[in-house]
């Protein structure tokens, strides 16, 4: 699922510019020690600044290739207690950009409290190698069709071997630490630990079926059946790939001893990916 989400983001926001970046001078951050967490792409993202004077600035921005977009800035104070961060929002600046580039952006300043403009306010601090993460239990859709939270998104990236080099849609900042280590699952609250694989999952291709769209004969996909299922720790959030990374599928349905996924690989052939090909969530 995460690979499809990444592709969608690239397609939608690939022709962006840099007008969405936080301006340090604008907010007076250049003279104040600041911890900056965030994630971003070409024209979307979230950025959280924790200022040393006890204030925070949270910005969520989204722009399109056509020039329109919006920025939501939330201001307030915060409290950091051990490994728990609590934000206390006070006010919001909501800026709307028209697709008509010369038009002046529309800014609305309001007190914090409107449901549609609320942000996550409770976070746990997680540390691993040179990453410091802020995870919230709050459920939202993000770029997925399923409701999920930061722990679930992080588990998806960790299970597939993307972390800690590549991060998902959760707040993170880079530190100077460079010690290589296994992730300590004890940092994760017990109720979310079931999403994390303690060992990589392996499965082999059992059956392949060609699927042709009856309304578009050139629209071809392939149904892949794997020989492992729910009893083998397979779930419908996993992505499995070949050792060289040249082929992967996202599991979308799971039975007791079988699981299934689709591939839309245009040059797929049974000779290239034969029955019996091994796929894993992570290759060591």
Q: What's the gist of this structure?
A:
The protein has 284 residues and is mainly beta. Helices cover 9% and strands 40% of the residues.
Structure characterization notes:
The protein is mainly beta. Strand 13 and strand 14 form a beta hairpin. Strands 1, 2, 3, 4, 5, 6, 7, 8 and 9 form a nine-stranded antiparallel β-sheet that branches. It has a six-stranded antiparallel β-sheet with strand order 12-13-14-11-10-15, with no helix packed on it. It is 9% helix and 40% strand. It is built from three helices and 15 strands.
Poorly predicted parts? 1-22
Give the percentage of residues in beta strands.
35-45%
Q: What percent of the residues sit in helical stretches (DSSP H or I)?
A: under 10%
Q: Sheet with the most strands? A: 9 strands, antiparallel
**C-alpha termini separation:** 22 Å
Mean pLDDT: 87
Q: Give the CA-based shape.
A: globular
What is the structural class?
mainly beta
Number of strands: 15
Query: What's the tally of helices?
Result: 3
Helix and strand string, N-terminal first?
A: HHEEEEEEEEHEEEEEEE
Calculate Rg over CA atoms.
Answer: 22 Å
What is the strand and helix layout of this fold?
Layout: H1 2-13, H2 24-27, E1 34-40, E2 44-51, E3 55-63, E4 69-81, E5 84-97, E6 106-111, E7 122-128, E8 131-135, H3 150-159, E9 171-174, E10 202-213, E11 216-226, E12 239-241, E13 248-254, E14 259-263, E15 278-280
Antiparallel strand pairs: 1-2, 2-3, 3-4, 4-5, 5-6, 5-7, 7-8, 8-9, 10-11, 10-15, 11-14, 12-13, 13-14
């Amino acid at each position: 699922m995460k690979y499809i989400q990444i592709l969608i983001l690239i397609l939608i926001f690939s022709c962006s510019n840099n007008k969405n970046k936080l301006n340090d001078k604008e907010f007076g951050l250049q003279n104040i020690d600041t911890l900056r967490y965030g994630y971003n792409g070409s024209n979307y993202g979230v950025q959280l600044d924790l200022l040393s004077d006890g204030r925070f600035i949270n910005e969520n921005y989204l722009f399109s290739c056509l020039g329109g977009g919006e920025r939501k800035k939330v201001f307030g104070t915060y409290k950091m207690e051990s490994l728990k961060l609590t934000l206390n929002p006070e006010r919001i600046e909501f800026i709307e950009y028209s697709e008509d580039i010369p038009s002046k952006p529309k800014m609305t300043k309001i007190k914090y409290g409107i449901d549609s403009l609320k942000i996550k306010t409770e976070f746990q601090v997680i540390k691993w190698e040179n990453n410091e993460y802020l995870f919230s239990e709050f459920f939202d859709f993000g770029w997925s069709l399923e409701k999920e939270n930061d722990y679930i998104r992080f588990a998806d990236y960790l299970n597939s071997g993307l972390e800690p080099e590549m991060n998902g849609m959760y707040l993170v900042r880079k530190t100077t630490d460079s010690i290589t280590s296994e992730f300590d699952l004890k940092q994760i609250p017990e109720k979310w630990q079931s999403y994390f694989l303690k060992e990589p999952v392996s499965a082999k291709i059992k059956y392949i079926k060609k699927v042709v769209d009856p309304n578009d004969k050139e629209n071809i996909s392939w149904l892949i059946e794997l020989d492992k299922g729910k009893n083998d720790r397979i779930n419908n959030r996993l992505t499995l790939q070949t050792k060289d990374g040249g082929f992967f599928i996202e599991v979308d349905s799971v039975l007791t001893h079988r699981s299934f996924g689709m591939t839309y690989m245009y040059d797929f052939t049974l000779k290239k990916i034969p029955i019996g090909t091994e796929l894993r969530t992570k290759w060591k």
